[in-house]
Amino acid sequence: MSKGRFILTGAPGAGKTAVVRQLEADGFAVVEEAATDVIALDQAKGIAEPWTDPGFIDRIAALQRQRRLAASGETQFHDRSAFCTEALAAFLGHPPSDLLRKEIEELKRAVFYDRRVFFVRLMGFIEATAARRIGLEDARRFEAVHERTYRAHGFELVPVEPGSVLERVAAIRRTF
pTM for the whole thing? Predict the structure, then answer.
């Protein structure tokens, strides 16, 4: 079994969180996703659509960095990364901020993550939540933006195809 820091990514509603929860239950270190928490906090403050504010991207990048630097464990699974935040910025039409660009440069310089990224594919449906207001067609477009972003940064995408949580985790474990 490989040691390292692995990213799980994919479109909203693909099932990443369930996969991450199972990996955590299996004893792996997990680094939580930041965007959902930033959205929830902003909405609790009365900001209905925080993603419309260009500062939204910096809040995500800062929280991701804080969580990334606090993480420990020989094998870590990161629920998203700054590269996902770059994809989000592109999808939303926000220019990448200086903070986000610096974070990405640092990650690349340090070769912080394993070059293999587990790309959790959409299940074919989306369940709406307070933070996830995206429909299936937009999720598919967002999935394509994620793919382009990771490939542009030289990552190898390892597809995690639709299936049960246990099937998806087993596929991940066979790969690393």
Answer: 0.91
Per-residue pLDDT of the chain (176 residues; tens, 9 = 90+): 568 999 999 988 889 999 999 999 999 999 999 998 999 999 999 998 899 987 999 999 999 999 999 999 999 999 999 999 999 999 999 998 999 999 999 999 999 999 999 999 998 776 766 555 677 788 899 999 999 999 999 999 999 999 999 999 999 999 97
Contact 81, 40 (CB under 8 A): no
Domain ranges, residue 114: 4-175
Tokens of 36: 């959902």
35 and 100 in contact (C-beta within 8 Å)?
Answer: no
* Residue 51 DSSP code: G
- 172 vs 166: CA distance, rounded Å: 10
The CATH number for 74's domain is: 3.40.50.300
Number of domains in the chain: 1
SS3 content of the chain, % helix, strand, coil (to 5): 50, 15, 35
